[in-house]
Amino acid sequence: MDFCSQITSAQGLVNDSVLSRLFPVTQEEKRVQPKAAPPIVVEIAPVGKSKVDVWEYKDSGWVIPFKYKNERADNYSVSVKVKGEDNSHHDSSNSNKKIEYFKKAWTGNGSVAEYFHPQSPYDQPNVISVSVADKRVVLITNDGREITGHVTPGLNTVIQDKPYSVEYTESENRWLLVDEDNDSKYEKRRQVAR
Questions:
Q1: What is the domain extent for residue 80?
Q2: In this structure, are residues 178 and 187 in contact, taking their beta carbons and an 8 Å threshold?
Q3: Distance CA 22, CA 153 (A)
Q4: CA atoms within 13 A on the CB side of 133
């Protein structure tokens, strides 16, 4: 009571001695100032002139970190991509189409897809239609020939021996590996959307 009678104005309430009595702070509770955050550097590049490289490079090559083929290496399905077409629309008016790639989608351990360039005669720009049933490929050319082949494990006549690109899922990440010089080593890797 004696102390309250000494306060004569609002300024007296802000006095350190009053606040320290109302809100005592022990030595352990004293706040430690955080370190200053490093500055954020933002680079703005003109549209179309960006030199950001999204690829990771490794001279010895990237590898898929798990086994995804069974003992017979036949646990895959085959699909085909024609240049200039999406998978849901077939343009029958163009009689000079070309196969862009064949895809082996592996089932079992992990989600892995291998992409292969076609071998001759499947690589010619004379395709009217191409169909894949299981591992059998039927190609109809613009001169009326029907060419049939099978995408078999190992060496075959439809696709090249080694994939030029592989996609796989590891944990929560989807990775794309690319072999640029056909030496069976994937020198480039980048993360892709799932």
A1: 56-192
A2: yes
A3: 81
A4: 3
Tokens 């954020």 sit at which residue?
40
Residue 64: alpha-carbon gap to chain centroid? 14
CA–CA distance, 147 with 134 (Å, rounded to integer): 16
pLDDT tens, residue by residue, 50-107: 666 788 999 999 999 899 999 999 999 999 999 887 754 555 666 778 999 999 999 9
> Per the structure, how many domains does the chain have?
1
Q: Assess if residue 17 is contained within a domain.
A: no
Q: N- to C-terminal Cα distance for the chain?
A: 71
State the amino acid at position 30 in one-letter form.
K
| Any domain includes 43 | no
DSSP state of 120: T
Evaluate whether residue 30 is within a structural domain.
Answer: no
190 in Cβ contact with 165 (< 8 Å): no
Number of Cα atoms under 13 Å in the Cβ half of residue 94: 14
pTM for this entry:
0.71
167-175: long-range pairs with CB below 8 Å, 24+: 167/112, 167/113, 167/115, 167/192, 168/64, 168/68, 168/110, 168/111, 168/112, 168/113, 169/110, 169/111, 169/112, 169/194, 170/65, 170/66, 170/110, 174/111, 175/62
